[in-house]
Specification:
alpha/beta, Rossmann fold, UDP-galactose 4-epimerase, domain 1, 2 domains, 11 helices, binds NADPH dihydro-nicotinamide-adenine-dinucleotide phosphate, binds guanosine-5'-diphosphate-rhamnose
């Protein structure tokens, strides 16, 4: 039975990846931090097949202990401070967890795996590394120009992964994933914030939606599709890095318009208020990925289209908010 250790198990991607690996008969270990992490309870309830192990990306010896205990064939490093807006406010923490955390995990793998290291490593790199984009669409060779402490930390993690692959002959690779969303997306991210507010407005529980800049463009896909690419990257003969994206881009305002339309509201602009609070010191204006390498070498393609994704998320939030009303 193959086994995998997932950091960031309590996040959106960790949950989809755990389900995918379980469906392929993996033994799945999920690393959780803290002495009483409330989200660990959700994982135990909803994904009971996951065995939780304690560890923190800020603590090297805890990573060594987690690896020694779980003896994984594959490590998926999804743990991070992943919210770009927070990274501006807690830049040092972000550098430590999202950046140095990658180095610590690779060191732990090197120490535990020994000679002819059998552990395969996946790093969750990000389209935020392209930031102020140098070319469009962005591919694996596009130069990085990060625009936030999160982006700079991810660039460090990305280069560190390449460096450990080349220096120590590790099977280590990075997926450069563009934005991917789902009903499990955290409410702090714009898509879920919007779909939740749309449901609440439709049900009369909220009267307005306060947002930041509506003009940035993102290449949005479905998280359930993207975790399949993560797994595929660790099954190749050679470790390589891949862009994972849909190849389409949409403005934030278009996501908002479609979300309102999904509940039959066409005059969406009257519900929107913009506030400086949700603007960033520097913005990433345009992201659109070229995933042809992942298509050619991994056979990976996105399956859920943008409008289906918006509808899926709105329907999920309508169901949750309606159930809350009935209580
Ligand atoms: P989430 O924000 O949903 O999850 C982040 C996870 O990181 C949580 O499980 C959190 O655990 C964990 N974490 C935070 N701090 C630490 C720490 N010190 N030690 C260990 N774990 C920690 O992110 P997603 O699931 O959306 O993303 C997964 C990864 O992919 C992240 O690295 C993200 O940066 C990257 N990524 C995401 C994209 C997206 O569009 N979703 C696109 C490209 C990259 P806790 O419950 O303890 O807070
Ligand atoms: P992003 O996602 O920064 O792309 O990072 P987010 O959903 O936070 O922002 C997308 C765009 O929407 C604009 N925006 C707002 N964003 C939020 N969160 N809240 C608002 O009120 C709001 N109003 C406008 C933002 O300015 C931005 O332009 C995500 C994360 O998952 C990262 O971890 C990941 O690496 C990248 O996607 C790829």
């Amino acid at each position: 039975m193959p086994s995998a250790l997932i950091t960031g198990i309590t996040g959106q991607d960790g949950q989809y990846l755990a389900e995918l690996l379980h469906s392929m008969d993996y033994k799945v270990y999920g690393m959780v931090r803290g002495q009483r992490n409330p989200r660990a309870d959700i994982i135990q309830r909803e994904l009971p097949f996951v065995e939780l192990v304690s560890g923190d990306l800020q603590d090297l010896s805890s990573l060594i202990a987690a690896l020694e205990y779980s003896q994984p064939d594959e490590v998926y490093n999804l743990g991070a401070i992943s919210f770009v807006a927070l990274s501006f406010k807690q830049a040092e923490l972000t550098a430590d967890v999202t950046g140095l955390g990658v180095l610590r995990m690779l060191e732990a793998i090197r120490l535990v795996g020994g000679q002819n290291n059998p552990i395969r490593f996946y790093q969750a790199s990000s389209s935020e590394m392209f930031g102020k984009v140098r070319e469009t669409p962005q591919n694996e060779l596009t130069p990085f120009y990060p625009r936030s402490p999160y982006g700079t930390a991810k660039v460090f993690g990305h280069h560190t992964t390449v460096n450990y692959r080349e220096s120590y002959d590790l099977y280590a690779c990075s997926g450069i994933l563009f934005n991917h969303e789902s009903p499990r997306r955290g409410i702090e991210f714009v898509t879920r914030k919007v779909t939740n507010a749309v449901a609440r407005i439709k049900l009369g529980l909220q009267s307005e939606l306060v947002l930041g800049d509506l003009s940035p463009r993102r290449d949005w896909g479905y998280a359930g599709d993207y975790v399949k690419a993560m797994w595929a990257m660790l099954q190749q003969d050679e470790p390589r890095d891949y862009v994972v994206a849909t190849g389409q881009t949409h403005q934030v305002s278009e996501f908002v318009r479609l979300a309102f339309a999904a509940v039959g509201i066409e005059d969406w602009e009257r519900y929107i208020r913009q506030d400086e609070r949700f603007m960033r010191p520097s913005e990433v204006d345009l992201l659109i990925g070229d995933c042809s390498k992942a298509g050619d070498e991994l056979g990976w393609r996105p399956e859920v289209a943008f409008d289906e994704l918006v509808k899926m998320m709105v329907e999920n939030d309508m169901a949750i908010e309606s159930a809350n009303l009935d209580r």
